[in-house]
Design goal:
Layout: E1 2-3, H1 7-13, E2 18-22, E3 28-32, E4 39-43, E5 52-56, E6 61-70, E7 84-93, H2 100-117, H3 121-131, H4 135-148, H5 155-167, H6 181-192, H7 196-224, H8 237-240, H9 247-257
Parallel strand pairs: 1-4
Antiparallel strand pairs: 2-3, 4-5, 5-6, 6-7
Helix pairs in contact: 4-7, 5-7, 6-7
């Protein structure tokens, strides 16, 4: 249904227990909704972007924007009109916005993204999110993976992971894509100058955590038929520069220290 929305109507009138309708005179009336089925209301306010509205469900009220878009990639070679599809994108919960005007502004931005990309703005944002991952988020994602496996990682393993992350705490807010090989090599040498084994453990964990994030993003990209937004692991520079000791080198180091139990 289409009707003129305002903040008061959304907050005080619309609910899952009633559903607006038009009486014979064209006035809005609120009829019982005994089956409590979710429903959509499209906003007809003059300041509202076309396709903007609110969805009422049993648990929440959410703003949405819906547009019909065509893809230039699918345009017929004969010059005819390209096939069109309807894209409906959730803007956010009503409670997340101070006013409906604010939600309309966000909806206008969503429309621009739809026009430019021919895709759901939320999907576009998810792609950007992968490329924006920080070092702390990478470690958190991998930690969740270790804890959520069919055979969860042992406490000792998680403790070592936490120590590795702590050694890189000054990078916690840095995006993975912004790290340079020079920075990584410099940090490795800094830690290694105090404790070589700790440096190797730290950066092996960082490397595998980023590798895991790249694999997840590759799978998501394949499903969504797009290019991955995170594909390069900056920590691979350490292997290229042969910063990690080989097994024989480790054995020689342990023998020199007299710690044969670690061989």
């Amino acid at each position: 249904m289409k009707m003129t929305l305002n903040q008061s109507i959304i907050i005080n009138k619309l609910s899952i227990d009633v559903k607006p309708s038009l009486d014979p005179q064209g006035r809005v009336v609120y009829l019982p909704n005994p089956e409590r089925k979710a429903y959509l209301i499209t906003d007809s306010h003059r300041d509202s972007p076309v396709g903007f509205g609110v969805k009422i469900s049993a648990t929440k009220k959410t703003y949405f924007i819906q547009r019909r878009v065509s893809s230039a990639e699918n345009r017929p070679s004969t010059g005819g009109r390209a096939p069109q599809e309807v894209i409906r994108s959730t803007i956010g919960n009503v409670s997340d916005f101070a006013s409906i005007e604010q939600a309309r502004d966000v909806a206008r931005n969503f429309v621009q993204t739809m026009k430019l990309t021919k895709r759901n703005p939320n999907a576009v944002k998810r792609e950007a999110d992968a490329s924006e991952l920080t070092i702390s988020e990478i470690f958190a994602q991998y930690r969740n993976h270790l804890m959520g496996r069919s055979k969860p990682a042992k406490p000792n393993t998680l403790a070592v992971l936490n120590k590795a992350e702590n050694r890189l705490k000054e990078w916690s807010g840095l995006r993975v894509k912004d790290l340079t090989g020079k920075e990584i090599l410099g940090k490795f040498d800094e830690i290694a100058s105090r404790a070589r084994t700790a440096a190797e453990q730290t950066f092996r964990w960082a490397n595998v955590a980023v590798k895991h994030a790249i694999e997840i993003e590759a799978g998501n990209a394949q499903t969504q038929q797009r290019q991955p937004s995170l594909s390069y692991n900056p920590f691979s520079i350490l292997k290229v520069q042969k910063k990690f000791r080989t097994r024989s080198e480790l054995e020689d180091s342990y023998k020199a220290k007299g710690d044969l139990s670690l061989i």
